[in-house]
Amino acid sequence: MNKNQTPVQVSNIGVAAFLICLAAGAAGSGLAGHPAPLIVLGLIGLYLLFALKVADQWEKVAVLRMGRYVGLRGPGLFHIIPVVESLSRFVDQRVRVANVTAESTLTRDTVPVNVDAIVFWVVWNAEKAILEVQNFVDAIQLSAQTGLRESIGRHELAQMITERESLGRELQRILDEKTNPWGITVHSVEIRDVRIPQALEDAMSRQAQAERERQARNILGQAETEISDKFAQAAATYRDNPVALHLRAMNMLYEAIKERGSMVIVPSSAVETMGLGGSLAVAALNGAKP
């Protein structure tokens, strides 16, 4: 038997028809007192047992008459001529999933990677898939694996990690060009995982850490530069405006002593420079009054 043909099997409705014919033949033979009804209905039931077939809603099957294709059947109930006609394997026309793995494949920058992908595909023309491909499931699997390896070789590691969607679209286009003549369409390809050697992963981690530290140092240096520029501007303002300097000093002193229970020691030279001697003495006398 051809590998593309389904083994001889009977359907539930064929078994039911066979049993009904046997029961009717037995009843007829009992009434007639002759075995002829049982023999005739038994032969009819045997014919229906192998002639009646059922295909599910999502299935198609090809009918071959003496090895020659005569058409598709299904979904639903149909019949064939036993011995003269045979069936191919039933074709599932729902969306199917194929897991594809490419191990130790070199990228464009010669980095070995292991890539896992999922291929979503569907048989849109059962006639082509049955007649033109011996085993379209294996063909899809092997074509997807080959296409994945080709796509990996055209991309660098950074692209594969950051641009998985574009890699999946490219692989989908490559596979669809191969499988469309077979009556099969590849809907999409999703890259699940890209794994690199552990040593390379550690090196990339150290590189990323060094890059982040460099950026942090640059940001800190930039902040110090901006602060020094602001201080230089403030110094120029205070040099030309002593009153502003005194007001700033008084504000700093106020911020230091406004909390209850705090004590601030101010050098006498600073007090004289700010002209606060009289005001501080007055404040001390007022505080000493009962």
Which terms would index this structure?
290 residues, alpha+beta, Tetrahydropterin Synthase, Chain A, three-stranded antiparallel β-sheet, 9 strands, elongated
Structure description:
It is elongated and about 140 Å long. It contains ten helices and nine strands. Helix 7 (198-240) packs across helix 8 (242-257). The strands form three sheets. Strands 2, 3, 5 and 6 form a four-stranded antiparallel β-sheet that branches. A three-stranded antiparallel β-sheet has the order 7-8-9. Helices cover 56% and strands 21% of the residues. The longest helix is centred in the last third of the chain and has 43 residues, at 198-240. With 290 residues, the chain is of the alpha+beta class. The protein folds into three domains: 12-90, no CATH class; 96-196, Tetrahydropterin Synthase, Chain A (2-Layer Sandwich), CATH 3.30.479.30; 205-288, no CATH class.
Radius of gyration: 44 Å
Number of strands: 9
Quick one: biggest sheet? 4 strands, antiparallel
Q: Look at the structure and give the CATH class of the largest domain.
A: Alpha Beta
**Shape summary:** elongated
Architecture blueprint of SSEs:
Elements: H1 12-32, H2 36-51, E1 52-55, E2 59-65, E3 68-73, E4 76-79, E5 85-87, E6 91-92, E7 96-106, E8 112-123, H3 126-132, H4 136-153, H5 157-162, H6 164-179, E9 184-195, H7 198-240, H8 242-257, H9 268-274, H10 277-288
Antiparallel strand pairs: 1-4, 2-3, 2-5, 2-6, 7-8, 8-9
Helix pairs in contact: 1-2, 4-6, 7-8
